[in-house]
Model the fold of this input.
Amino acid sequence: MRADARRNLTKIVEAAAEVMAERGVNAPMEAIAKRAGVGVGTLYRRFPDREALIAAVGHHYIHTMAEALDAAALRSADAWGAIREFISWAAAPGRTALSTALAVLPAEVIAERPEFTGVRAGWVERFADLVRRAQAEGSMRPDVGVEDLIHLLNVFTCHPEQLPAPVAADPGRYLRLMLDGMKAGAATPSGA
Done:
């Protein structure tokens, strides 16, 4: 692929992610093309239908999540700090809007595609490694697993319509409060 074609492809996918975050997955293709600075014909040459574009946005999104997790791990002095930084990143307003837009899609549109599942599996494994490291460092409760964090991210960033309005308005705050309950020593004794 030529360099200019690759740049156009990247611009289209990034613009689509922004527009879908603002207007949902059924946002007009014309609005996406305009945001990308390309003609509608260029958009349709790259993506013959909405499903192909949505799949590309989902693939871009999971790659972005994986990159953000890796960056947090590199920047943080410890695993707990990396987990907190990544959770805060994931709960940022633009990302939660895109997560919400993508969450309403049937699984076969994104989640069951091999290019998505491979990247997601690697991302989950690296996230699980951070959880294990935080537990080994003594900063995270031993009874919390990566699945718990993924479920919380899913609830708080993909399904705001199921949350009380104040929580949906600032999911990052509530995720951070929940993370505080996952710190070592915060466990409630059994039967209490």
User: Anything to note?
Assistant: DSSP finds ten helices and no strands in the chain. The domain at 1-48 is CATH 1.10.10.60 (Arc Repressor Mutant, subunit A). The CA atoms of residues 21 and 98 lie 4 Å apart. The chain has two domains: 1-48, 50-180.
